[in-house]
Structure formats: C-alpha cells, structure tokens
Amino acid sequence: MKHEDIKMGFETSAIAAQAPQARGLRARFGALLGSARTAVADHPLSAREAVHLLRNYEEMSAGWFWASDADGCLTYVSEHIAALFGRTSVQLRGQTMTELFRSSEEDSKRQRNLPFVMARKTRFDGLAVHCVTEIAEDWWEIAGQPQIDAEGNFIGFAGYGVDITSQRATEQENSKLAMYDELTGLANRRRMGELLENALAAAKAQRSACSVMLIDLDRFKQVNDTLGHPAGDALLKQVAERLVRVVGNAERVCRLGGDEFQILLPGKEDRGELGMLANQIITMLSQPYAVNGSRCIIGASVGVAVYPYDGANSEEVIRNADLALYAAKGSGRGRFRFFASDLLQSAEDRRVLEHDLHDALDRGEMELNYQPFVDATTNTVKGCEALIRWNHPDRGRISPALFIPIAEEANLIPKLGEWALRRACEDAAGWPGELRVAVNVSPIQFADEGLPTLIESALANSGLDPERLELEITESVFLNDGPQTHEMFAALKGLGVRLSLDDFGTGYSSLGYLKSAPFDKIKIDQSFVRGATEPGSRNKAIITAIVVLARALDMETTAEGIESMDQLAMIRELEVSHVQGYVYSKPVDNAAFLEHVSGADWVLAPAGPARQRTHRHSMYRRIGAIHENHYYPVMLRNISISGALIEGLVDVPLETQFVLDLGEGQLAVATVRRSRKHQQGVEFEQGLVDDGNGGLCTRHRVSPYTMSSAGLPMDAIPSVVTPITADENGLMSMPTFRHMSDARGGKPKAA
After folding, report:
1. How far apart are CA 646 and CA 642, in angstroms?
2. What is the C-alpha separation between 673 and 668, in angstroms, rounded?
3. Which residues pair with 559 in a beta bridge?
4. For the whole model, what pTM was predicted?
5. How far are the Cα atoms of 279, 319, 343, 372 from residue 303, in angstroms, in the given order?
6. Can you name the residues that pair with 633 across neighbouring β-strands?
7. How far are the Cα atoms of 132, 327, 445, 706 from residue 330, in angstroms, in the given order?
8. Taking CA 213 as the corner, what is the angle to CA 211 and CA 216, rounded to the nearest 5 degrees?
9. 59 touches 78 (CB < 8 A)
10. Which of 353, 333, 337, 356 is closest to 345 using CA atoms?
C-alpha cells in the first residue's frame, strides 16, 4: 500500500467517523480532517489536494498515521514515529502494533487495551498508548478504522495518532497533587484512606491483621510561633524524611495535615514489634533539627490501633488510634499508647479529675512526700526529693503520672509548683543538720521570668539556707535554648541555690549545654538502672559514661530507682556519688520522715531483695483462668513481664498450666510455680511487652476470626464458667484443685 493510498483510504465516511470532538490536542487534527472531508465532498477532483494537506500535517510532526494488515502487522507508520524507535518506516513494517506500544494502566483495568480493540476489528479511538525508547517516554492517543475490501473482508486498520505526552504529564502531576502532600511528598489523607481500605480488605480476605499509627508532633507550634511558618515547613520536611527512614517505605507514611502523620503497617500485629517501632519513631523525631540556622528540638506522641481487634472498619480503626494518641499525649507526651476499650471511660475520668484538681489545693488534698538520697559510700542521708501527691476524697491516691499532665493542660502547673516550692522550703527548714531538699521545676515554671523572685520569697519566708535548696530541672528547658535560658540559669545561681539536671539521657540530651549550664548534679534516670545488672545490657556502660562525664565537669551524680542489692553494688562499683530508691526508703510524708531522722549524721542501712526482680505492677482486677474445659474468674493482684500473682483458687498443684484471659483477646499461657492457699504465682510461657503507658500487654491477641471459626460470636467470652460464690458468712468460696488420677494417668482437674 502506497503512502498516497493510505491517505486516500480515509474516505469521506471514515474521516467523518474518526474526527474527534473539538477538544484538547485532537481538536487541531479534527479540523484538518474536516477540511479534507469538505474538499473531497465538494471538489472530487481536489482529492490530491487533500492528500497533500494531510502529508504536510504529518511532516510537521503534529500527528501521525499508521496502517496494518489483517494480522495486525504494520504496513505503514509515519516516518517521525519510526525514528523514535531508531528505525525507518520501512524497517518497522511487519511488526505488530502491540509489540511497539503499550496501553495505559487505566485502559487495561477497564479491559480496553490495544490487543483487545484490534482483535474486535471494529472502529476505536481515544486509546492511550505509550512506548519507552532511549530518547524518552512518549504518550499518544490513537484511533483506528477497520478497512474492508470489495468482498466485505477485513483487510486491516488505517488510523492516526496524536501526541499527548505533555497533557499526560500534566494529568499525572494533577493526580499526584490530589493524592500526595505538596510539602513533604508523602501520601495525603485521601491517598492513605484508599491504601487503608485496600489493606483492610486484604487483611479480611486473608484473616490477618493491619496496624495503624497516628503521630502528633509535640511543641511544633512553638517552632511556628518563634521561627515562622517557613521554618515550620522546613521542619515538617525533615520529619517526613525521618519517618520514611524508620518505616522504610514512603508509601506507608502519610501526612494528614498540620503536624499530624499516619503510618500504615499491613500484616503487623505483634505489639512487641509495634512498641519498638513506636519508640524508634519517638526517639528519631526527638533528635535536634537544624532549620534555617536555628537548632530546634520537638517531640512526638504515637497512638496505635490494630485491625481487627481495635475496629471492624477503617473508620473505627482510625478513631481508636486517635483515642490512643490522645491518651499518649495525656500521659506526658513523648510516649506511645495502644488502644484499649477503657480509653473512652478514661477520657471521661480525665474530665472529672480536671474539674476536681482545680479545687484540690484549696481543699487540702495535696501533700508532699520525701524520698531520701544517700551517699553511696557511707549510707549517710544527704537530703530528700520532694514528691507531690494527691489524696482524692473518693478515689484515694491519684498517680502523678495521671494528674500532672492534666494540670499542664489546665494551666495549673504554676499554682501547684509554687505551693510545692513553698511547702518544701518550710518543711526542710525544720529538718536537723544540713539536709537538702530537692524540688522539681517544670519547663513551664522555668520559662516564667518571675521564678527567681518566687524562690527568693520562699527562702526568705521559710528561713531556709539557699545552699540547702536543690532545683531539679529537666533537659526539656533547652528546647528553646536562647539568651532567656542562660539569663534564667544565671539568676538562679545568683540566689545561691543548687541545680540538678534531672532524667539525664532520656529525652533531649546534648553535651553542648553542659558546657554552659551551671549544674551541680546529674541525676541518672531509673530507666538506665533498670536492667543494668542483666547479662548483655548496655545500661551499665551508659551509666559509666555519665559518671565519667560528671566527674570531668566537677558534678555529683545520683542514681534513681535503686531497689535491689545487686543494683546498689553495681552503682557503688561505678562510683556514682548518691543513691535514691526503695533500697533505702520509699517516699513518706513529712511527719513520718521526721520520726526517722536520727540527728545530723543520719545513716540508713540498705535493705532489699538480693537481685533485681522484674518490675511488678500491683493491681486488683478480675480476669479469667482457663484450665481444660473450665473457666474460673480469679483476681489479678500483680503482674510483671514474666509472671503474675493471682488469687481465687485453692490448693492448685505446682506445674498446673492455665491460660489467663487478660481481656480484649489477650490470652497468656502460664504455669503455676508457687502455690499457697488461695494465691498462685504463675510464670508466663511468653513474656509480656510494654503497652506504652507504663503497663504490660501480650504480644499477640486472639483474632476475632479465630473465635468466629471456632463457632463463637466475634465478641464472645468463654461460656463454661465455674463461679466464685459467697458462703453464709459472706466469705468467698474458692474452687479447689486436687490430683484426680484415672486409668490413663493423673492430671490436675477442677473439683
């Protein structure tokens, strides 16, 4: 088929049928075809003229033509298109269109691809195809008209193509803007919503899990307010880069907007691994940033929810991850938290506690307890740390870990801080000898320019020697390190008080500020002490480094949280100067403290377990103990990573195995290692993990799918229960275990 024949093959009807709508890039080509159609219809003798017109269009590379035989092999293609493949039009003859061009993903998903439309042997147009050559990747929209011979047989296609490369690039850019965050390049809320829906659908089909993390930056607003929004934007870009580095897959990380991010983790449910990842994220995001020549330090809080345990659909999973995030922020920020069903009730409890906290001081519900810190070599008490306590009239003792964050949100820290400072000075003034009192100063108080005046007033009113007042300051005061910070340190030292760096190494450590900040002491956080005596722990090396650093800077050191004799021995070996912890004394109120003071040189003998025990959480909570086909309600008295103490059964033989139902799908296999009357000490087959809120949880949970496949409803609890009942005297009647042997051998059974 000759070049001119191909042009003439577009007879009037074909030209009319193939002329696209007058839009976009095809409008120009349509106009040319329209001109050719008019020429042929009105002036039959000017057909050559129409061919000449189309040839000029082709040579201008504004569009191109192609033709194929009945088998789809090219019989003609415009020369400038052949050149893209490094060949001539003649050299491409015999190759199929499908060998050279690929359909777009969108058309392939609709099953309207190039092989499909050519196999139908019917007219098509508006089909997007592309090819990747050594020069570039080009996109075209092509159309094809079936060619029929005189006998009515299909003999091939004749068609045209229009370059849509630039249009395609614009569409892809617009699509990216619609699905990705313009600032960070991460997926946006819309894109992550689609990814989450797909991930949950796959998890449901595979009966697997999918985890979601929500991340909120702590103190980001301060950066925006002090350095401006451009600096804030630059910081967010760095945060995005760090998150991608930790997660390892940019498509799993999303910026929801502002300073909120989301991470999608398909197939992940191990809460030990999730907790480690959350801690890695918090640690990574809490490292200093360099933004426009300024040094910025922020933090992060993380909420975690796991499908299908924490929600049956994307809305529930996101809502519950958000509740967990709120709980993490409420627990002091810089933490992670798994969702638990009691978080809704906790939110209401926090609201009530905030209301009560406003009047707690006026009602005399606050008190100070004092915990001694002791010379590590002589056991001589050198002073005490003042610890605030809240005695709620209905709920009893409220943990500072709970009410201090509430006080921060309610702006009550200045009021509570002033009260604690004045009371501590008054109490210490009545202590014998030169015992010092250490008082915590929050970053909120430290930022108040009136703090030195307040301290001066408290010292004057109490008559306490300034040298006996020690202010414990955390590293977070250096978040906005500037002239005001240095001026505050100078003003405090000018009063003659001592300064202690609290919780060193746990958050925002930088050796830089130790060169200029006038600290007298470094306190080694108990997180480094805990586990330091265990084989393979690096904590001992960290403590050693802190001690060497402090000695070089002529500072004292205090190790917090010492509870066992092996910990004390290690601390003495490392030459830490002071010790604070249960091995010497628990915190006590001032009256009890004065009863134990025995003169100016008060010596305390250490006492405690020989070796560090796994930290146990005391509680009083009803759980279930499953043995064979019996489900017993029992009371959980304490729990640790490795075991628990339960009560509610009598005479349980040693080595009896239970499955403890800790609630919310948490089942832990446990073996009785100690049994005395109605109490049993059990050891877990697999250790528990940190729940991000100072508590413990199982690594895995029993999936609702597993319960369903076992014939139980998704929210089922064991139905075979032997209840604990009260006798006529109101005493609890405990189910009794005893050895009952049969012909097949004895196993402990429920009586």
Report:
1. 14
2. 15
3. 524, 579
4. 0.55
5. 11, 10, 12, 36
6. 624
7. 54, 5, 19, 34
8. 175
9. no
10. 353
Residue 561: Cβ within 10 Å count: 18
- Are residues 478 and 485 in contact, defined by beta-carbon separation less than 8 angstroms? yes
CA distances to 85, 189, 256, 582, 641 from 614, in Å: 70, 42, 40, 15, 7
Longest distance between any two alpha carbons in the chain, whole Å: 127
Select from 583, 588, 586, 555 the least CA-distant residue to 571: 583
Q: Which residues of 364-383 are buried (b: 16+ CB within 10 A; e: fewer)?
A: ebbebbbbbbbebeeeebbb
- Taking the C-alpha atoms of residue 241 and residue 253, their distance in angstroms, rounded to an integer, is 10
Helix, strand or coil for residue 633? strand
> What percent of the chain has a predicted confidence (pLDDT) above 70?
79
Q: Would residue 651 be called left, alpha or beta, if left means φ above 0 and alpha means ψ between -120 and 50 degrees?
A: left
Asked if residues 443 and 476 have their Cβ atoms less than 8 Å apart, the reply is yes
Q: Which residues fall within 8 angstroms of residue 442, CB to CB, at 6 or more apart?
A: 408, 413, 417, 474
Q: What is the 3-state secondary structure (H, E, C) of 440-485?
A: EECHHHHCCCCHHHHHHHHHHHHCCCHHHEEEEEEHHHHCCCCHHH
Q: Is the Cβ–Cβ distance between 330 and 406 less than 8 Å?
A: yes
Residues shown for the chain: 751
Quote the pLDDT of residue 34: 47
pLDDT tens, position by position, 11-21: 333 333 333 33
For residue 378, what are its two tokens? 């002589």
Alpha carbon distance 100, 81 (integer Å): 11
Are 692 and 275 contacting, i.e. CB atoms less than 8 angstroms apart?
Answer: yes
Tell me the C-alpha distance between 175 and 698, whole Å. 42
pLDDT of residue 111: 55
Residues with Cβ within 8 Å of residue 569, at least 6 apart in sequence = none
Give first-to-last CA distance, the chain, whole Å: 97
Mean pLDDT within 188-207: 93
Bridging pattern class, strands 469-474 and 498-504: parallel
Give the bridge partners for 646, in sequence order: 636, 680
Residues 6+ positions from 586 with CB-CB distance below 8 Å: 371
- DSSP for residue 723: -
Answer yes or no: are the C-beta atoms of 333 and 548 closer than 8 Å: no
With DSSP H G I counted as helix, E B as strand and the rest as coil, what are the percentages for the chain, rounded to 5? 40, 30, 35
Cα 75–Cα 77–Cα 81 angle in degrees, nearest 5: 155
| Of 282, 288, 399, nearest in space to 335 by CA | 282
CA–CA distances in Å: residue 337 to residues 196, 332, 544: 20, 11, 31
Within 10 A of 546 (CB to CB), how many other CB atoms are there? 23
214: nearest Cα among 116, 338, 129, 312: 338
How far is the C-alpha of 48 from the C-alpha of 158, rounded, in Å? 18
pLDDT at 703 over 80: no
How big is the CA angle at 60 (ends 58 and 61), to the nearest 5 degrees? Answer: 65
Which residues are CB-neighbours of 58 under 8 A, at least 6 positions away?
A: 64, 65, 78, 80
Least confident among 42-51, 54-63, 180-189, 451-460: 42-51
Task: Kindly state the tokens that stand for 620.
Answer: 């009083």
- Non-local (6+) Cβ contacts of 514 within 8 A are 501, 549, 553
Give all strands of the β-sheet with 336-338 in edge-to-edge order: 253-257, 260-266, 210-218, 299-307, 336-338
Asked whether 221 and 479 are in contact (CB, 8 A), the reply is no
pLDDT band at 613 (very low <50, low <70, confident <90, very high): low
- The token pair at 615 is 């930290």
